[in-house]
């Protein structure tokens, strides 16, 4: 069945992130002046305003823990109606804990989700040449 | 702005009917609210030389409102805004009066928030991705509703501080109890017990329908002028002791640091500006788009220490007779929702002792706080006195 949910739209500021995701690789924007990561990325650093920015590859094997979550019982957007309840979470990256990435936790029951839970990034192919970073619980 | 304590006052407040389906436009409702506030103040429309409003592309303009009050004002201002904008516009009004540019300002918020454009609903997902900051990192994951964004903040804060679902319920049941005494509250006849609250299924855990503000069709208006001119008004002036506003976190919907809440920065400034402490406050209007937001602000504004906010509400302190009767008309959870302005109307009426002799009046309330919260990123607050 065709993917019905919204597909990330690329723009001037976010395309390096989504281009890398399409290659199953996570890259994050970092400021060369204050060395802080910036996520979501922007036209300049949200911490210090510098325009000296780089993209840093975090690779394709990305681990995190759950920082926070909601369990959504209603589809607020088209395409999500068949996947309720939906876990929407923020994943705190193991390698860059100051970055929290919003995500869905797949293969997880709503009663099992909890803060601090370890998760692994997986790459969900959603269209030809497009992929969405998602997460699943780490098997213990 | 220099020291403004007691030099400016709110001299008129008014609202339109509130309903699920007004059958009319925001302009009509804004006119009703403005006329009601003018009547309350005893001023004529021609006495108002500044008109201001905030909206989310869902309202009429200040220019239209002035036009149909038959006024050609010196100044109109419409900003894009939500929670916290009421306090910010009152600050703007005070600044313009202080500068001698204006004499009297009417501030309004009018929205068909139920029958018209609803917050966070009915938009095209691609349009939302472009419109929201960092939208491409939110929308593909199905996160498009304020209940989901605020729920994410709440879950983490609850985890860190021990606040429980039942504590959220105490906020809701306290405010619904107040709505039960307010015939104009939309949920006046819908009492809420803790049992009923706990049995209500979640929309976005940790929130069920009672944790969320009531989207209605409604308009509110407030008139601000100098203390000097306030003496000529019919109403009892409510003086502005102090105010403050602040922006902090860069991403409203993408919150990665719980310590970056604008209220935490606004709180010391607003107390300093008013020259009072939390223990001097006897009545409160705390911005309540969601129940949890009240708890986080009680912590920020120093009414209970972090970790003890849940107990503070469980002890009944938000109710009449408690330490801090809060949102005494029912608040946005049960009276009505105009992005914060209806809570300002209520605190003005409390501080005027307008309900004297009834079970709605907070006894001996001379000083009150009113807070706005637009998310973790933006907050405004003011302290008012009799
Ligand atoms: Zn920087």
TrEMBL record, chain A:
Organism lineage: Bacteria, Bacillati, Bacillota, Bacilli, Bacillales
SUPFAM superfamilies, A to Z: Nucleic acid-binding proteins
All copies of domain ChsH2 rubredoxin-like zinc ribbon, residue ranges: 18-53
InterPro entries tied to this protein: ChsH2_C, ChsH2_Znr, NA-bd_OB-fold, Thioester_dehydratase-like
Protein name, UniProt field: DNA-binding protein
Domain ChsH2 C-terminal OB-fold: residue ranges: 63-124
UniProtKB/TrEMBL annotation, chain B:
Name of a matching Pfam family: Thiolase_C_1
Signal peptide start and end residues: none
GO molecular function: acyltransferase activity, transferring groups other than amino-acyl groups
CDD domains named among the record's database cross-references: SCP-x_thiolase
Transmembrane segments: none
All copies of domain Thiolase C-terminal, residue ranges: 249-375
SUPFAM superfamilies from the UniProt entry: Thiolase-like
PANTHER family in the record: ACETYL-COA C-ACETYLTRANSFERASE, NON-SPECIFIC LIPID-TRANSFER PROTEIN-LIKE 2
Protein name in the entry: Thiolase
Record organism: Virgibacillus necropolis
